[in-house]
């Protein structure tokens, strides 16, 4: 890959090049430690620990690349001052049987000392060159809706348009199990059954990955679960698809805990003390079911719920049963929160238990990279109205 240069600033030159795992890992980790995730400048900040693998958030995708910005000739010699990751895959466009090759841009970081010098924009532009080489028709990026510098960068300097407004919903894992639903039964599907159900029922949802089989069979995928009204006779997935119950919901679990950890910094001492008190009370009297707050002020892992879908008048209730099950799986697996991301109009959103203070409102921005690709029946996807649901690929969460 050709090396790109940024203008000199006080004798310092910044080069954009491909990530070299043999020598860049310490520098990338230092940039990650210095950069918060989410709204910029808040008192509470979220930081990421990549557990020694800077590629962890893209390496499970069909095609991926990581770029670094390297400062040369500055007061500290040579140092990594910026990073970005990207991947390319084929996804559904929200219309039956229409797929598009899209690129996803994630993990853009620029060290605080080197911001406002165009480094982030140059990293994005160089990544977009690779996207075009890979034949991607669109590029999209997710950022926190309240992160004004990030939103300005993408919608201003980089030419992206605001596209979708999903929300990240987060629920803490208590020190006790949640009681299973009395109205729903949860059935575990194997990978073949899950793939068949997803392709038949969610195959046209926006961003549904064509290689869903690779997602479901990944070692980080903890299984797919189907909730149906209690008392429903289970006749296998073929029988379910031929004659589904009046209401149902499906979701899969992904083990982010073994890929990366998060840490909340900047919390007041009073908050920390209150969280410790809830944990102590839950440990002493688990039968009371006290909503205890796990320790989020040191690196912690999470489980991600993806592929949420369903149907029928009680679908939200079925989804709630799935999330109770997901909570208990996370507790046994050592995760401290369960998270999911849903579209603004997701009909099952009412069934997702979450604590608003722990979540975030996302903004997905999209950019058409080139004309002449894809199915002419699609038109310009970037101008299409939103559907009711989106499929959030756990490989890039």
Can you describe what's shown?
This is N-acetyltransferase domain-containing protein. InterPro entries: Acyl_CoA_acyltransferase, GNAT_dom, Plant_NAT. One of its GO terms (molecular function) is acyltransferase activity, transferring groups other than amino-acyl groups. This protein is of the alpha+beta class and 397 residues long. It folds into 2 domains: 176 residues, Aminopeptidase (3-Layer(aba) Sandwich), CATH 3.40.630; 193 residues, Aminopeptidase (3-Layer(aba) Sandwich), CATH 3.40.630. Helix content is 24%, strand content 31%. The strands form 2 sheets. Strands 1, 2, 4, 5, 6, 7, 8, 9, 10, 11, 12, 14, 15 and 16 form a 14-stranded mixed β-sheet that branches. β5 and β6 form a beta hairpin. α4 packs parallel to α6. It is globular, with a radius of gyration of 22 Å. The two termini are 27 Å apart. The model has no long low-confidence stretch (mean pLDDT 91).
Spans where pLDDT lies below 50 across 5 or more residues: none
Largest sheet: 14 strands, mixed
Number of helices: 8
Q: What is the subunit organization of this protein?
A: single chain
The count of DSSP E runs of length 2 or more, i.e. the number of strands, is 16
CATH fold-level label of the largest domain: Aminopeptidase
Distance between the termini: 27 Å
CATH class of the largest domain: Alpha Beta
The class by helix and strand makeup works out as alpha+beta
Query: What is the overall pLDDT average?
Result: 91
Q: How many domain regions?
A: 2
Order of helices and strands: EEHEEEEHEHEEEHHEHEEHEHEE
Principal-axis shape equals: globular
Radius of gyration: 22 Å
CATH architecture tag of the largest domain: 3-Layer(aba) Sandwich
Portion of residues within helices? 10-25%
Strand content: 25-35%
């Amino acid at each position: 890959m050709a090396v790109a240069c940024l203008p000199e600033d006080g004798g310092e030159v910044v080069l954009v090049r491909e990530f070299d795992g043999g020598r860049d890992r310490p520098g990338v980790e230092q940039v990650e430690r210095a950069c918060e995730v989410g709204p910029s400048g808040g008192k509470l900040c979220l930081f990421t620990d990549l557990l020694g693998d800077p590629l962890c958030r893209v390496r499970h995708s069909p095609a991926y690349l990581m770029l670094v910005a390297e400062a040369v000739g500055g007061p500290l010699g040579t140092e990594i001052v910026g990073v970005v990751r990207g991947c390319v895959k084929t996804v559904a466009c929200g219309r039956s049987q229409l797929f598009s090759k899209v690129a996803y841009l994630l993990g853009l970081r620029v060290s605080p000392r080197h911001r406002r010098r165009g480094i982030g924009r140059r990293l994005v532009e160089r990544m977009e060159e690779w996207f075009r080489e890979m034949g991607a028709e669109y590029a999209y990026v997710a950022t926190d809706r309240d992160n004004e510098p990030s939103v300005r960068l993408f919608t201003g300097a980089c030419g992206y348009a605001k596209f979708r407004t999903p929300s990240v919903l987060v629920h803490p894992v208590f020190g006790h199990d949640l009681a299973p639903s009395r109205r729903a039964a949860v059935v575990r599907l194997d990978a073949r059954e899950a793939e068949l159900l997803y392709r038949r029922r969610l195959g046209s949802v926006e961003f549904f990955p064509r290689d869903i089989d690779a997602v479901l069979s990944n070692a980080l995928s903890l299984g797919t679960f189907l909730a149906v009204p209690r008392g429903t006779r289970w006749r296998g997935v073929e029988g379910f698809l031929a004659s589904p119950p009046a209401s149902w919901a499906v979701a899969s679990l992904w083990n982010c805990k073994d890929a990366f950890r998060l840490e909340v910094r900047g919390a007041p001492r009073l908050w920390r003390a209150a969280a410790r008190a809830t944990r102590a009370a839950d440990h002493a009297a688990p039968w009371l079911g006290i909503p205890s707050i796990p320790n989020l002020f040191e690196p912690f892992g999470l489980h991600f719920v993806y592929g949420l879908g369903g149907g029928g008048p009680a679908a939200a209730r079925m989804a709630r049963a799935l999330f109770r099950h997901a909570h208990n799986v996370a507790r046994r697996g050592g995760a401290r929160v369960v998270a999911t991301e849903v579209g603004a109009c997701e009909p099952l959103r009412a069934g997702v238990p979450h604590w608003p203070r722990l979540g975030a409102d996302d903004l997905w921005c999209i950019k058409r990279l080139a004309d002449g690709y894809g199915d002419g029946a699609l038109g310009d996807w970037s101008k299409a109205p939103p559907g009711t649901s989106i499929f959030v690929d756990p490989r890039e969460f």
